[in-house]
Amino acid sequence: MTVAEKLITIADNTPLVANAVNAARTTVSGPVIRVDDVLASEHPVKVQLRSKNLFNIMQLRYNTGTSYVNRLDNGDIRVDCTTSTSTGVACGSTLTELAPALRAGETYTISGTSDIETRAYIYLQEYGRSWSFGTSLTMTDTILNSKVFFYSNAGQINYVHDLMIVHGTATPDAFSPYMDDFSGVSVAAQGKNLLSAMSKWNALPQENAQPIFMKAGQKYTFSHNGEYTAWRLMFYGTEADGSALPIDPDITASQLSGVYIDSTYATNSGNRPRIQYAANLTGSHHVIRCKKDFTVTAIQLWVTGEEITPCTQFQLELGAAATAYTPYEPAQIAEADETGKVRGLQSMSPTMTLTPADPAVTVECGYFPQSAAATYESYQKLKAAMIL
């Protein structure tokens, strides 16, 4: 480390400086992030990956006796009441031990399935109430410190599958395992426009410069500056996505032309899975919402022959609104270490989109907003003075 770097490190770790700088940062999190108020001065962003599923089944302690709970190698939870009249069994762990990332005041949703449908819940002893699968609950200290019970029927064995606790009120569409090792999980940092520039669009799929990791439940808007009276939009994925094609739940049956492994365009698409919107789309934009995670490698805009004219502004952006066109900026890619910390990503202004490649994680980003310009400028001057 150079002398200059050591001095900067001292400045960054001086409580007065560190507290002022950290207070000026804005931190946002989610399965994918878009922020529109990034400071123009380029700066490192603090990126941390976290497990989407906050329930760590490995912390479930076995309970023995006439009735007991244990976890199986396949991730299921066995609730055995075959030799007992009891229906509820304490697992030996509190909620905060099973899900240490939960915080008082925050709302979370639990999901899972139970072989005995009437036992699809957990019971929180000190809280004195059950938490049913598919419902949300705002945490308190009492809830967090409650011992967790699982349920069966007296004289029966019950199995609980795919138990998840996620932040927020939305029930996840698919199960994600708990993650505590993030080694090698990549994050793409991009501007607003996720679609690389093309000189024109025709009947061939256009490969994107960077795969677009479209996330389940998120809305994306495709827009163009053409004057087409009718057009068809197609997304191409990877072979691995063959059984997980995204179906937009907001569109009508007449708009959806097909969701299938491509055979008609086999030469052009390489038999990649394709979701196709019919040729009766009108206007200059269309909103897409993915039902499942989907990796887009190419996009195709098709119009009737007499309407094929060059377009210069194509955009795919996170969100349900078409905003002013912004040219594509090359993506930054960085990998997380074992703890989920991602180093080396720089801010992109004014809009930055962060997308992790693994659907089992969420991303947290700390950045300087435009409102922190004065604080950031003072911080930079302090560092320069220490170097001098």
Describe this structure in words.
By secondary structure, the protein is mostly beta strands. About 10% of the residues lie in helices and about 35% in strands. It has 6 helices and 25 strands. It has helices spanning about 5-15, 15-25, 95-100, 140-145, 265-270, 375-385, and strands spanning about 25-30, 35, 45-50, 70, 75-80, 90-95, 105-115, 120-125, 130, 135-140, 145-150, 155-165, 185-190, 205-215, 220-225, 230-235, 255-260, 275-280, 285-290, 295-305, 315-320, 330-335, 340, 350-355, 360-365. The chain has a 5-stranded antiparallel beta sheet with strand order 4-5-12-7-10, with no helix packed on it. It has a 5-stranded antiparallel beta sheet with strand order 14-20-16-18-17, with no helix packed on it. A 4-stranded antiparallel beta sheet has the order 1-25-3-23. A hairpin with a 4-residue loop joins strand 8 (about 120-125) and strand 9. Helix 1 crosses helix 6. The longest helix has 15 residues, at about 375-385.
